[in-house]
Every structure is written in C-alpha cells, then in structure tokens.
Write a structure and sequence with these properties.
Elements: H1 3-61, H2 67-125, H3 131-164, H4 170-185, H5 187-197, H6 202-241, H7 247-259, H8 266-278, H9 282-307, H10 315-329, H11 333-357
C-alpha cells in the first residue's frame, strides 16, 4: 500500500476513534447508568441471594427446613439483623457528626495557636517576616477550620436526608426483598429453565461462567468485608477504650480509608498521633500508635489467608479499577470498578477452562 494511503487510513481510524469517544461513548455510559438504575433492585437481589445462600443451605440440610421456609428465615435473620444494626449506627453517627460540626472549631483552636507560635518563633529567628505572610497563614487556618466544620455539618445533613428519603425508597426495598426471596427459593428451577431454553453448548457454558463469576465475586466481597470490618471494629473499640471522642465516626472514616488501596488506616492514625505527640499529649499519641500497630498487625496476619479466597488482585489493579469506575459512573464506581474487574477476570478464566475441556 502506498505511503499516502497508509497515512490516510491511520488518520481516518484516529478520527473515527475520536468521534466514537466524543459522541458514542458518552451515550453508551448514559444508557448503562439508566439500565443500572432500572435493574438495581434485581442486582441487589442477586447479591443478597449469594450472601444468604450458605445460611439457607444450612437451614435446609441441617435443620430440615423446607427451602421456602429456610429462605424466609435466613432473610429475617441476616437482612433484618443487619438492617436494625445499620439503623442504630446511622442514628449514632448523625448525633456524633452534629456534635462534631459544632465543636470542631474548639478542637482546631490549639492547632491555630501552635501554628501561630511557630510563626512567631520564625519571625524572631529570621528577624522579621512580612505581616502579609503571617496574616495569610492565620486567615487560611481559619478558613480550613470553618471548611472542616461545614464538612461535618454537611455529612450529618446528608445522613439525615438519606434517612428521610427512606420512605421514598420503600418500593425499591420491597421489590429487592421479594426478588431475593423468589430467586433464592427457585434457584435450581431458574438454572434448569436456562439450560432447557438456551441452545447447547451455550447454556452450560454460560452457566459455568456464571458460577465462576459468582464464586469470584463472592470471594472478593467476603475477603474485603472481613478485612474492612475487622479494621473498623478494632478502631471503634480501640478508640473507645483509649478515651477518644467520636469513636464511631472516626472508626468508620478509618474503615473507609481501609477500603482504598495504598492509603489505608495510616491516613488517619499517623497524622492524628503525630499531632498528639507534637501538641504535648504524649500518652494519647502513644496509645494511637499502639492501636494502629495492632490494627496493622492483625490485617497483615489475616490478609494473606483471607485474600486467598478471591482472585488475588494486586492492590494497584484494584486502585486503577476504582479510579476508572469513579471517573466513568461516579462514586458508585468505587465499589463497582473492582467488582467488574473481578467479573471480567473470572469470565476469562472460565472461558479458558471451557476451551481446554473442548
């Protein structure tokens, strides 16, 4: 092919890719978001079905309960128990955030005094700093304090708004619970229906891929849930024992950072402990460091065993998946990104296994 035709073909290809990225991809993402919103009750139902299945199987086989009764009992025990616990946690969290939004400026008063003291020492050391610099530092510290106070207040208002929006979500909750019951009760019938009406070998192959994906998905969620729950619970209990205020709020924040690869609980513990040591609260700073060391040691000890339940994703891969999910579909992508990555890898693994069998 002549050189000019190669250049023209490359130019046309790049132009088509640009047009697709500019006009087609945004529309596809809008459609995906719409489909996700429409199907979210049934997606949640599938997830709940996977989570309650071990208890359903236990009640059905060991307790000799009929499958419909076992499903209903498992839903009452797990979903009802978790729902009640979540409600109590939200009310406690709202109370702590409301109190924190009011008292946060008081806690940052010593920080401002500390910074002001260092500025004064620097002024004496360097003979004299321009007044503009010192005024700017104090002004920025005040702005930062007000921003944190407003942030805590907004978080409390968000939780209150979320609680007040629950009545409007009653339909979604009802559909999710009903779909969970029917999917879990008739799981075998749904599989047989699929194998009967989907032509071979696609029926069995898709069922195999589905089992592989669900297994990897459940393993990943179980591993992350266990590790993050341990970190959060240790932090809340530990902070309560050492006498830290707002133990629930700070513990949940630590659990959130534990969800993010690379950052982890150190994002909260180490700056907090450093400030306690610098400000003269030596005992509390040492307690925070000991608590962080305990949390870190437990996680490092259990992580290798727990994460062995999933596909063994590298933290960098999880971080990339979370970032891509955040940029494409919003905050929900922080959770869906790694799950979609797990799903794709599991599907590839199942497809390769099917080819080997053939």
């Amino acid at each position: 092919m002549p050189r000019y035709l190669q250049i023209a073909a490359m130019t046309i290809t790049l132009l088509l890719l640009y047009l697709a990225w500019k006009f087609i991809v945004p529309e596809v993402l809008v459609i995906i978001k719409y489909l996700f919103i429409v199907t979210i009750p049934f997606l949640l139902a599938v997830i709940l079905t996977v989570f309650i299945e071990p208890l359903v199987r236990f009640l059905n086989q060991r307790a000799r309960l009929a499958r419909p009764l076992a499903v209903g009992t498992a839903m009452v025990i797990l979903i009802g128990g978790l729902g009640s616990l979540l409600t109590l946690l939200i009310f406690r969290l709202v109370a702590e955030l409301n109190d924190l939004s009011v008292s946060l400026p008081k806690y940052f008063g010593p920080v401002q005094e500390y910074v002001t003291g260092w500025v004064e020492r620097g002024r004496l050391f360097y003979i004299q700093l321009p007044p503009v610099i010192t005024d700017r530092l104090q002004e920025n510290m005040g702005v930062f304090t007000r921003w944190l106070s407003d942030l805590a207040g907004q978080a409390a208002n968000f939780l209150l708004h979320l609680a007040s929006a629950l009545p409007g979500a009653v339909m979604v909750i009802i559909v999710t619970l009903l779909a969970t019951y029917f999917i879990s009760r008739d799981r075998q019938e749904i599989v047989r229906f699929w194998l009967k009406y989907v032509p071979a070998p696609w029926g069995e192959r898709t069922a195999s891929v589905g089992r592989e994906v669900v297994g990897a998905f459940l393993g990943y969620l179980r591993a992350q849930f266990i590790l993050i729950s341990l970190t959060t619970l240790q932090s809340i209990v530990g902070l309560q024992i050492i006498g830290a205020k707002y133990a629930l709020t700070v513990g949940l924040i630590i659990g959130f950072f534990d969800l993010i690869p690379v950052l982890g609980p150190a994002t909260v513990y180490l700056p907090w402990a450093a400030w306690a040591l610098i400000s003269g609260n030596l005992g509390f700073g040492i307690k925070l460091l000991v608590l962080y060391a305990l949390v870190w040691a437990v996680r490092q000890t259990l992580e290798a065993r727990v994460v062995a339940a999933n596909l063994g994703l590298h933290p960098l891969a999880v971080l990339i998946a979370m970032y891509v999910g955040l940029k494409t579909i919003g905050v929900t992508g922080l959770v869906l990104g790694p799950i979609l990555l797990i799903t794709v890898l599991a599907a590839i693994k199942a497809g390769m296994a099917a080819r080997k069998q053939e």
